[in-house]
Each structure stands twice: as structure tokens, then as C-alpha cells.
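Sample intake sheet
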Amino acid sequence: MYRIDIMTLFDLTVGDMMNESILGRAQERDFIRIEAHQIRDYTLNKQKQVDDYPYGGGRGAVMQADPLYQCWKHITDTYGPGHTIYMSPAGKTFREADAKRLRDDYDHLILVCGHYEGIDERFIEECVDEEISIGDFVLTGGELAAMVVADAVARLVPGVLSDPECFEDESHWNGMLEYPQYSRPEEWHGRKVPPILRSGDHKSIARWRRKQSIIRTRDRRPDMYAKLDLSSKEDQKLLREISQEEADGSAES
């Protein structure tokens, strides 16, 4: 069973979120276990204080090393060593490739959620294996980031989703964005489902979807598109078709 422990000041909120929907059902079936731990429970003072003023001055407060360490130690003593990740805006930006790496290389993650002005560097030096960011922005705490990472990794664990195709066709898995999706009814507000998707011809549908993924990736994420390997005969044919169709469209307009 894949295990994820989240160290947080908001264990009830995080725990509730991680026990809903697909992840909740996967935990009921023992494919994964996600548990949130209240850091305040591991402080030694009566006020349950977990932060103090920063050395050197400055605004705000810093989370103290010892409550974090005691919480971390309880997790490792109880459930065994885990790959410890501090959710930090100074960390490496999280990608789908990282979700796959964390799923493949570890069976136990410990996610540390900071608050205020951050956490004591000494805890990072002693206990943290890597720092991860979910983007170039700052949040009021690490909980949202930790839930993002937990969700992205957990859904890749075998059994959590009904079939690997549920994530292998999605955006970012193979370096591309996903093709457009449609559901009933066939026409909504004058907009119709592309006829190819109602044809029943699975080979043609797969080809159409590949073409749409190429177009969408090129238009929306040129950085991803530049890294794609489209050298196969089939992809080269699709590229020629796209170019011709767009040229025809320009001529008509």
C-alpha cells in the first residue's frame, strides 16, 4: 500500500479533502493511505506554540524546528522511513514527471506544510530530502501544495483509477496536452459534437485525437511543443494535414 503522511497545522481540513471522491474510495480499498498530522500535538509547551520570532529580526514568525521534528519522528517511528518533501516556493517546480518519479521510486512520502515566514532551516537540513514548489507564486501555507502533490501522485498508484488509460491519455503524461472531450447531448447551444467521435471508427478517432493534441499543445504550450518528437511517419502526415487545413481555412476567410 502506498502511504502519504502530511504534516500540517490544519489536519482536519486536509484530512477531509484527501478522503473524498476517488482518493477516499481508494483508501477504503487499501490501495493508498493518506493521513494528516497536527504539528501542534508535538510541541512541548502548554500554549501549543509552534512558531517564534526570526533570529536577525524581520516581520512575521518562523515555525520552530522541534515541533516539526517530533511530528516527523512520530511518523517515521510508527510507519517507517519516508521520502520527506518540504512544500516551498524555493523548491523545484512540480511536474507530471515528478509525480511518476515519486510513485515509482518510493512507497512512503512525508509532506511538510510550512506557514508564516517559513520553517527553521535546521529541520530542513536534518530531515528534508527535497523541496517542491507548485509554481512561481507564494501561498499562505503549504497545505494546498501538499494536497496537489498527494493527489497527483496517488492517482497514479495502481488500483486508484480503474485503468492506466485514465491517466496515460491525459495532459502532460506524454509531453502533450489532452485532446478536447465531449459528452451528451450531441448538440448544445448550437454546438455539435465532431462527427468523427460518433462514427464508431476507433482507429480514426484515435488519429483525430492525436491531431487535436498536437494542435492544442502547439497553440497553448509552445514550450512543450518544442520538445515533442513528431518524427514518425504518422505524425509527419498529421502535421501536413494540419498545415493544409489551416492554409485552406485562411484562404476561405
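Comment: The mean pLDDT is 93. The CA atoms of residues 43 and 66 lie 7 Å apart.
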